[in-house]
Design goal:
homodimer; alpha+beta; Arc Repressor Mutant, subunit A; three-stranded antiparallel β-sheet; 22% strand; globular; DNA-binding; WH_DNA-bd_sf (chains A, B); transcription regulation (chains A, B); DNA-binding (chains A, B); transcription (chains A, B)
DNA sequence: GTAAATGCAAATTATTTGCATCTTA
DNA sequence: TAAGATGCAAATAATTTGCATTTAC
């Protein structure tokens, strides 16, 4: 009844965008891979498996649209590729990432640790925070234990 | 005697890299624009003004090298362009950015606000933090006052 | 029926690489 | 003088765009 897919569909129709099978297939792939950080190419390959006639440009356009609707978050870990994460409606802001420089794994932290800092920014800098992004680079648990 | 330029030169020679006029010119440009967030293209244009025979590829190679030496920090604000900031030896970690979504300005915060969080990460997640990155998106003081 | 969306191919943008030539240590 | 660095042009990679055709509303 009130699946995430339905909510996203509603967001599209409410804003006057059309509900095409390509868009639905793309959103389904994102939902099935919520915890991966998929690039446009990744999404394309996955959607193409179920919907072979889709074009890469459509995937780019869909991801861009979902990004504008704040359905996905477009992130860039520094390699030249944009990645797209489903945004959870429960999380007002971006989540944080723990990026392992040894094995490349990306772990997520879904708590928001930055609220006190945001208050301070608004007071000390008169900067109104709308969103933030916090990534840590380092060595993950697994790689630390291997290194011993 | 102990200018930043000299220190960077020393870092190059110590690691066995050659001190070419192209590299020096590039570092000088970075020093003269410490607070801008220059793209490789920006750096190229600025260096070319003083050293017209330099090639764009050399600028890319130099910035990459300086990045590996941790002399500059390669950052990506989400538009498709990498930017390069001189790293201050006083700041062990990246500094933070306040990115205004209205006028596009980027202000820097040089304090490190994340040490308590890093401690927590190492204890709760057994993740050894080597570096981090923190950007806030929002509305800057100037744009807030204009909007009133 | 019509505005919006698609697929394809070509264009664009940022960055990297091969290679012949030059330069620093 | 030899390893390393450069400049140029060509190659690559990611993303965007033009346009004729199709489709959702």
């Amino acid at each position: 009844m009130h699946s995430t897919l339905d909510k996203i569909k509603k967001q599209l129709t409410v804003k006057g965008f059309k509900l095409t099978p390509q868009r639905e297939a793309t959103v389904r792939v994102l939902l099935e891979h919520e915890d991966d950080h998929l690039s446009a190419e990744d999404v394309y390959i996955l959607v193409k498996a179920k919907f072979p006639e889709i074009g890469l440009a459509t995937v780019y356009r869909t991801l861009e649209l979902l990004s504008e609707l704040h359905v996905v978050e477009k992130i860039n870990f520094g390699d030249g590729v944009a990645r797209y994460d489903l945004r959870n409606e429960s999380q007002e802001h971006h989540h944080h990432h723990l990026i392992c420089l040894t094995c490349g794994s990306v772990e997520e932290i879904k708590e928001d640790w930055l609220l006190p800092l945001e208050l301070r920014l608004e007071q000390e800098f008169q900067f109104k925070v709308l969103d933030h992004r916090l990534d840590f680079q380092g060595t993950c648990r697994e790689c630390l234990s291997k290194a011993e």
